[in-house]
Automatic annotation (TrEMBL):
<comment type="function">
    <text>Component of the gamma-tubulin ring complex (gTuRC) which mediates microtubule nucleation.</text>
</comment>
<dbReference type="GO" id="GO:0051225">
    <property type="term" value="P:spindle assembly"/>
</dbReference>
<dbReference type="InterPro" id="IPR042241">
    <property type="entry name" value="GCP_C_sf"/>
</dbReference>
<dbReference type="GO" id="GO:0000922">
    <property type="term" value="C:spindle pole"/>
</dbReference>
<dbReference type="GO" id="GO:0000278">
    <property type="term" value="P:mitotic cell cycle"/>
</dbReference>
<feature type="domain" description="Gamma tubulin complex component C-terminal">
    <location>
        <begin position="2"/>
        <end position="305"/>
    </location>
</feature>
<protein>
    <recommendedName>
        <fullName>Gamma-tubulin complex component</fullName>
    </recommendedName>
</protein>
<keyword id="KW-0493">Microtubule</keyword>
<dbReference type="Pfam" id="PF04130">
    <property type="entry name" value="GCP_C_terminal"/>
</dbReference>
<keyword id="KW-0206">Cytoskeleton</keyword>
<comment type="similarity">
    <text>Belongs to the TUBGCP family.</text>
</comment>
<dbReference type="GO" id="GO:0031122">
    <property type="term" value="P:cytoplasmic microtubule organization"/>
</dbReference>
<dbReference type="InterPro" id="IPR007259">
    <property type="entry name" value="GCP"/>
</dbReference>
<dbReference type="InterPro" id="IPR040457">
    <property type="entry name" value="GCP_C"/>
</dbReference>
<dbReference type="GO" id="GO:0051011">
    <property type="term" value="F:microtubule minus-end binding"/>
</dbReference>
<dbReference type="GO" id="GO:0007020">
    <property type="term" value="P:microtubule nucleation"/>
</dbReference>
<dbReference type="GO" id="GO:0043015">
    <property type="term" value="F:gamma-tubulin binding"/>
</dbReference>
Length: 320
């Protein structure tokens, strides 16, 4: 199951079938069926442990099934990913440990939703660009190009953030923290108590990487706001995410009729949260193994924000 290409198929199925929290209790069997179908269609079809994965409705005290707006970045936070374990594995994979895995999976789902929304937005914008080029001599051409450039610039900026976040988390989870865990298994574990301790240390590192630890709750909220910007941006272009092969018609006309106040609102929200993230970065430790500082270094690689976004934000100097 380690390749996990089933997860991409499952998340897309959830979105396409609009499996939002409001009807979760009634549709849990259907959602479980989507999970099983996604596994069957993936490279994990013959995995011996595929039947151990299941879904459940989270029963957290502070979470209401109606709290997550349909179509929002938290649309599927109500779902928990479970794994059936037997003795003696359950000595290590305790219920508490499995809850942490489920929390991390929910975060990765949010990143995937944002990334796929921006990919679909790119397909739509390419269609708009093709139509605009065909109308090169018309009187409305200049205004349509201006609107198109606004969309392209905003998508590029949000996409840079989401892509960097996705690559950072994947690298840290799949390589850095995992190699550290394997090294600890080989050199520190002498009994089951050592095993449990090393495993919990690995999970705590994973929570820090995904900004889900108690110390990074503020950062997590900012990141969720930016991921929501990606979904909101896609909604500006009309249609639904992952609706491939649709007929756009006069797409440039649709683009020019877009509610630009909504686009500018998304842009302001994106910049506001970048400012907040930068302030968190300034206050955060600069030498932690898994810290905001490391993510920010990836995000601002080659002074991307200094040159592209710093001009618009003005008073913030993104270089350190």
């Amino acid at each position: 199951m380690e390749l996990a290409d089933w997860a991409d198929l499952f998340i897309m199925s959830l979105w396409q079938h609009k499996c939002y929290a409001t009807e979760a209790d009634k549709r849990i069997s259907e959602i479980q069926g989507l999970l099983e179908l996604s596994i069957q269609r993936s490279s994990c079809e013959r995995d011996h442990y595929r039947d151990r994965i299941y879904l459940y409705i989270k029963k957290e005290k502070n979470m209401s099934l109606s709290a997550s707006p349909a179509g929002g970045i938290q649309s599927f936070n109500y779902l928990g990913l479970g794994y059936r374990v037997d003795w003696p594995v359950n000595i290590i994979l305790t219920s508490g440990a499995l809850e942490i895995y489920a929390e991390i999976f929910s975060f990765l789902m949010q990143v995937k939703l944002a990334h796929s929304s921006l990919a679909e937005a790119w397909y739509s914008l390419k269609e708009h660009m093709h139509t605009i080029n065909q109308k090169g001599g018309s009187g409305s051409h200049e205004s349509e190009v201006s609107v198109f450039n606004i969309f392209m610039k905003l998508r590029q900026q949000v996409n840079h953030f989401v892509t960097t976040l996705q690559q950072y988390v994947q690298s840290q989870l799949s390589h850095v923290s995992w190699c550290k865990f394997v090294h600890s298994l080989k050199n520190q574990v002498k009994d089951m108590m050592d095993f449990e301790s090393v495993h919990m240390s690995y999970l705590n590192d994973s929570l820090h990487i995904c900004f889900l630890s108690d110390e990074t709750k503020g950062v997590s909220s900012i990141i969720q706001n930016i991921l929501q910007c990606a979904l909101d941006f896609r909604s500006c272009l009309g249609g639904s995410t992952w609706q491939c092969g649709v007929e756009y018609g006069d797409s440039s006309s649709k683009l020019s009729k877009t509610n630009m106040s909504q686009v500018h609102s998304i842009k302001r929200e994106f910049y506001k949260n970048l400012k907040d993230l930068y302030i968190c970065y300034l206050k955060s430790p600069k030498h932690g193994e898994f810290s905001l500082s490391r993510f920010w270094d990836c995000l601002n690689y080659n002074d991307y924000y200094t040159e592209v976004i710093g001009k618009d934000i003005g008073h913030l100097a993104f270089s350190v």
